[in-house]
Amino acid sequence: MKQTLLLSTILIFAASCVSNPETSSLASNEQDEKDGRICKQEEVLGSKIPQKICYTKAEIEDMERSGQNAIENERRRRMDQQTQQGLRNTGEPI
Question: 51-82 as b/e, with b when 16 or more CB fall inside 10 Å?
């Protein structure tokens, strides 16, 4: 009796570990696409478990635009800083 109980417990546990997450995520991806969202699995900092992150196309474009603006602002700031340092080295008043 104990052996069959142990064997059935092991089989149930093994069967639950074999589940395919792809089949369950396919159905949710179809619904997300209908809603106009783009979803992907991303690893969150400090965790090894990926999480499903969804954004609309407009949100993605806005994040890309913000990133490009940040890069451009940093480039301008560094150029201004180099220009001011160059003027200091020439002895001319700023």
Answer: eeeeeeeeeeeeeeeeeeeeeeeeeeeeeeee
3-state class (DSSP) for residue 56? strand
pLDDT tens digits, one per residue of 45-80 = 888 899 999 999 999 999 999 999 999 999 999 999
Q: Which residue has the higher pLDDT, 19 or 40?
A: 40
* Nearest partner of 15 among 27, 7, 23, 26, judged by Cα: 7
Q: Is the pTM of this model over 0.70?
A: no
Which residue, chain included where needed, has tokens 């696409």? 33
27/23 Cα distance (integer angstroms):
7
Task: Please work out, in degrees rounded to the nearest 5, the angle formed at the alpha carbon of residue 43 by the alpha carbons of 28 and 41.
Answer: 20
Distance CA 12, CA 6 (A): 10
